[in-house]
Amino acid sequence: MSFMGLTARDFVQALKNYRLNLRTRFLGSRIGFAWAILNPLLLMLVYVVVFGFVMKVRVSEDSGPMEYLIWFISGFAPWLAINDGITSTANAVISSVHLIKSFPIKAEVLPLSYTMMGLPQLLVGIALVVILSLVSGAGISLHILWLLVVIPVMFLFLAGLGFFLSALTVFFRDINQFIGTVLMFLLFFTPVFYTLDQLPVIVQKVTFFNPIFQIVDPFRQVLVNHQNINLVGFAYLFVLSAILWVLGLRFFRKRKGLFESVL
User: Fold this and answer.
1) Where would I find the beta strands (DSSP E) of 20-113?
2) Around Cβ 71, how many Cβ atoms within 10 Å?
3) What are phi and psi of 7, to 5 degrees?
4) Burial 136-171 (b: 16+ CB within 10 A, else e)
């Protein structure tokens, strides 16, 4: 049985490889997997201090630091998962040369497994938002169940993009530098630190087509606003993600036969 061009066995192998990647990332660290929690917390703390207390950005005129803190983390956590997923997936093939040459593993499994490297940051962020919402009295609602749909589509998007990037990086190593610049550009032109109406008017008009915004916004709708997600925006994200998956997987498979000669 296959789904989206991959079998159930491929997905199981991707999960196993993901667990191996996580162990490798924190190998040698004295506190091990605790860094998976501490790292996103420290990053969030730095940005909250800069934007929430130094620049005093607010969600609305009558909101306070706590409201901004909850609003910010609900958007920054998925951004961290996106950033980590894209940068890790781009290096999926070149960092797994030993697996390709030594084991009978499907190359397609590699970018799929690296796509999930940002999952710990995402889960930490969601847990923190829930805790802060309960402590502040804002509470949570059943709308949070939308995340059971939003999160898989988010990783579908990352995987589709990852198939393209991981294959291209084998032949053009400078893509890593390019990805970092593009992600930094998208970070500051996506309403992650500030609300949509605080961006330039021309940016507001095209933000709907920004897939990063269409990933971040549902998290804020369900965690902060306690509303249903924007179905039009989510439908756009799903269609885009499905197209990226199909085309990306086809692109990857056409070029994977050349990997060993280059690596």
Assistant:
1) none
2) 22
3) -90, 170
4) eebeeeebbebbeebbebbbbbbbbbbbbbbbbbbe
Q: What is the CA radius of gyration of the chain?
A: 19
At 222, list the tokens: 């369900």
Residues in a beta bridge with 3: 6
Q: Which of 17, 9, 251 is nearest to 117 (CA)?
A: 17
Which residue has tokens 């990647």? 21
Give the count of beta carbons closer than 10 Å to the beta carbon of residue 174. Answer: 8
Q: Based on the number of CB atoms within 10 Å of its own CB, is 104 exposed (0-12), middle (13-18) or buried (19 or more)?
A: exposed
**Overall average pLDDT of the 21-34 stretch:** 67
Whether the CB-CB separation of 83 and 190 falls below 8 Å is answered with no
* Six-digit token string for 243: 């197209």
**Vertex 215: Cα angle to 106 and 121 (nearest 5):** 70
The predicted model gives 234-243 an average pLDDT of 96
Distance CA 98, CA 15 (A): 18
pTM passes above 0.90: no
pLDDT digits (tens, 9 = 90+) for 107-132: 888 899 899 988 988 999 999 999 98
